[in-house]
Design brief:
It is a single chain. The chain is an alpha+beta fold and about 150 residues long. The chain has a single domain, classed as Immunoglobulin-like (Sandwich). The chain is built from three helices and nine strands, in the order αβαββββαββββ. The strands form two sheets. Strands 1, 2, 3, 6 and 7 form a five-stranded mixed β-sheet that branches. The radius of gyration is 16 Å and the shape is globular.
Length: about 150
């Protein structure tokens, strides 16, 4: 328990300077200019965690940047979420791993970034997480950011 508290405090201290500096740059303009990539399909024979996009709303046709970026993770069958397994990839060619960029905003219940900056255009990301039973869940997120 004390170890988790110390780790949480350390993560908070790491995140504080970036929070004070303004929005988290989730995707840079240079990354957005990369050629489009292809989403790799994954199939599991067991039920991995469910990932629910909370914000922006899944039915939003377009959003303004900076935006609230919030995902909820739901484990099944008595398992718990392995927060260290979270991976966020920007689907480009080559793909861009955003996992380290968001690490301070990840918890067992999901990802919560209050101000994420993305350049205008369409952005496709794949987020995946593993549970304590080794089952993986993934979700494709498509955001269109207004100019």
């Amino acid at each position: 328990m004390l170890k988790k508290s110390i780790v949480s405090l350390a993560l908070l201290l790491v995140a504080l300077p970036s929070l004070a500096a303004g929005p988290l740059v989730l995707i840079t303009a240079d990354e957005a200019r990369l050629p489009a990539g292809e989403v790799q399909k994954s199939r599991g024979i067991t039920r991995g965690p469910t990932l629910e996009l909370i914000s922006p709303k899944a039915d939003a046709t377009s959003v303004k940047s900076p935006l609230d970026f919030k995902l909820r993770f739901v484990a099944h069958g008595g398992a718990s979420i392995d927060a260290e397994s979270v991976q966020l990839l920007y689907v480009k060619s080559p793909s861009v791993d955003l996992s380290e960029r968001i690490a301070a905003y990840v918890g067992e219940d999901g990802i919560s970034i209050s101000k994420a900056a993305l350049p205008p255009g369409e952005h496709v990301m794949v987020v995946s997480v593993q549970d304590s039973n080794g089952r993986r869940g993934q979700s494709v997120i498509k955001l269109t950011v207004e100019k």
